[in-house]
Amino acid sequence: GLWAPIPVIPNTDKTSYSGLEVQASFLPDLLGPDVKNGVFTNLFIGAWTFFSMELIQRTGWRFVSEREIISEDIYSQFCLYRAVKKVSVLKEPLYYYYESPGSLSHSCQPGRLQKINQFYSKCRETGYLYGYNGKVMERLSYQYLSLVIEYLKMIVTSNDSKANRRAMFQAAVHDPQLQKVLSELDFGKEKPARKLLLRLIQKKYLRLCCILVKAKARKDLYYV
Predict the structure, then answer these.
(1) What is the pLDDT along the chain (224 residues), one digit of tens a residue?
(2) Which residue among 114, 121, 142, 189 has its CA within the 20 to 30 Å range from the CA of 65?
(3) What global pTM score does this model have?
């Protein structure tokens, strides 16, 4: 049978942000938690965000195609927030995500890590262009690392040969862009399991990294 879904409810001090607060306070938390200070607001950028038609028409905003950039929903909304003047937070679960266990079995797409790196570089380029503050730029790393971790999970659960999985996993852990981000990020108060995994990736302990990623992939099967 199916397991009961676990609701994730926003844990913000405020339910309304306006003016400069949107970029100064709300957008950073939307991109990722403050792992430096251990502050987790449970805000996530994704499909559960609603925007006014007035804002869309005024900005001429459109989603970027997934063929152009990976995680197009995150990137597209990241671009839009330069024009957002007011945000309201609903503190109740209205969106439930279901992932079929069978969907974790697949072949890894070639070049996916390069697409993740492109996403991160494009977001940083856009953030500097729009003059987003330092907190916004810092929190981008959380999204980037989450994409990398998901990629590692895809590798260990894929139908590719053991040799291919090992080669892809090693290439990802040793990736210069990933190692650079980890060296610059202070994740001292990150959640324990993720913190441990990031430390192991930083140290390039492939076997231990693989064990943790496999454990996380199995655990995620129960979140429906």
Answers:
(1) 455 667 778 899 899 999 999 999 999 999 999 998 999 998 888 767 889 999 999 999 998 888 899 999 999 999 999 999 999 998 887 776 665 554 444 667 779 999 999 999 999 999 999 999 999 999 999 999 999 999 999 999 999 899 999 999 999 999 999 999 999 998 889 999 999 999 999 999 999 999 999 998 887 654 43
(2) 142
(3) 0.89
